[in-house]
């Protein structure tokens, strides 16, 4: 009788709380809750009128992380969704780095009925995920005739640091399309293989500015003694101040004394922007001849940003 009266006084919710539920059941309930939230968030994203509405929903999915990946993959695969949203879902998926999603993304990459924009997003997504198992399907697309797909595949293989694709990426520096050449140059920098210097050096004479700049930056990343001579030649040939500055930065990354005399001369004689970059480069090389020159530049600098750069270089050389 006592037991019955107690039960009558308890709500159904209280009774459920007394029952010890198995972990598998609780996990399943949590997954259902997550899936429901993810689906609702994806629908809100598709209805967003501007970035202010879209980005908060994207952050929710990003914060949920891998449990959100299956539904995000479905949204990326769904050809009824607008292309803009599908590309956005691909970026989200790449950032979440869910390994289980790779086969589904590979299917999109290989689907010839998909647009080049969607297939290239699939390639970038695979590169961003960072798993070596994506290398083989990406390599298979290196001969794709579409420049958008090919250029993104090359870049993705660079992100994956796939040394097995080195030769193919090197050959892509000779492609007729400027964006393929650009991404091939950038990928060679990511691979950081000194053999890439032979592919990058000819690009210093490329007619397209952004291809030259990509080559310069990658030569700086590789940063061996062998990169100094082509970079010094590139500095002589450069006309635009921005391009000269990028060459100077690359020379600093080589940390080679062979570049020091040229950089000292720039620090002495060139305008403030180039001199500032030369000071930073010399601080990386560790040439103490730059110290009094940097002191003079610090005193003369009127802009706080420029002065700060000189101060940082001075500190590095004197500490």
UniProtKB/TrEMBL annotation:
InterPro entries named among the record's database cross-references: ARM-like, ARM-type_fold, PBS_lyase_HEAT
GO MF term list: lyase activity; oxidoreductase activity
Superkingdom field: Bacteria
SUPFAM superfamilies: ARM repeat
Gene3D superfamilies: Leucine-rich Repeat Variant (1.25.10.10)
Swiss-Prot/TrEMBL keywords: Lyase
Alphabetical list of PANTHER family matching this protein: DEOXYHYPUSINE HYDROXYLASE, PBS LYASE HEAT-LIKE PROTEIN
Protein name: Putative lyase
Organism: candidate division TA06 bacterium ADurb.Bin417
């Amino acid at each position: 009788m006592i037991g019955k009266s107690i039960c009558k006084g308890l709500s159904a919710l209280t009774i459920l709380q007394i029952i010890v539920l198995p972990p598998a059941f609780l996990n399943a309930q949590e997954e259902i809750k997550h899936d429901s939230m993810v689906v609702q968030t994806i629908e809100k994203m598709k209805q967003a009128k501007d970035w202010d509405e879209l980005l908060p929903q994207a952050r929710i999915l990003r914060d949920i992380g891998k449990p959100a990946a299956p539904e995000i993959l479905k949204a990326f695969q769904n050809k009824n969704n607008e292309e803009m949203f599908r590309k956005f879902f691909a970026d989200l998926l790449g950032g979440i780095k869910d390994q289980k999603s790779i086969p589904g993304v590979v299917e999109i990459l290989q689907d010839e009925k998909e647009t080049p924009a969607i297939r290239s997003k699939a390639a970038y997504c695979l590169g961003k995920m960072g798993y070596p198992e994506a290398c083989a399907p990406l390599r298979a697309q290196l001969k794709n005739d579409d420049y958008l797909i090919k250029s993104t595949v090359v870049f993705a293989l660079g992100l994956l640091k796939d040394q097995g694709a080195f030769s193919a990426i090197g050959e892509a520096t000779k492609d007729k399309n400027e964006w393929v050449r650009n991404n091939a140059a950038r990928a060679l920098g990511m691979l950081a293989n000194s053999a890439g210097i032979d592919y990058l050096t000819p690009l210093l004479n490329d007619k397209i500015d952004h291809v030259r700049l990509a080559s310069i930056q990658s030569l700086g990343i590789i940063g061996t003694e062998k990169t100094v001579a082509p970079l010094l030649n590139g500095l002589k040939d450069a006309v635009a101040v921005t391009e000269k500055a990028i060459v100077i930065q690359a020379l600093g990354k080589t940390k080679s004394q062979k570049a020091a005399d040229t950089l000292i001369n720039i620090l002495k004689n060139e305008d403030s922007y180039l001199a500032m970059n030369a000071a930073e480069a010399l601080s990386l090389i560790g040439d103490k001849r730059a110290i009094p020159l940097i002191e003079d530049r610090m005193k003369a600098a009127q802009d706080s940003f420029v002065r700060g750069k000189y101060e940082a270089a001075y500190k590095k050389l004197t500490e």
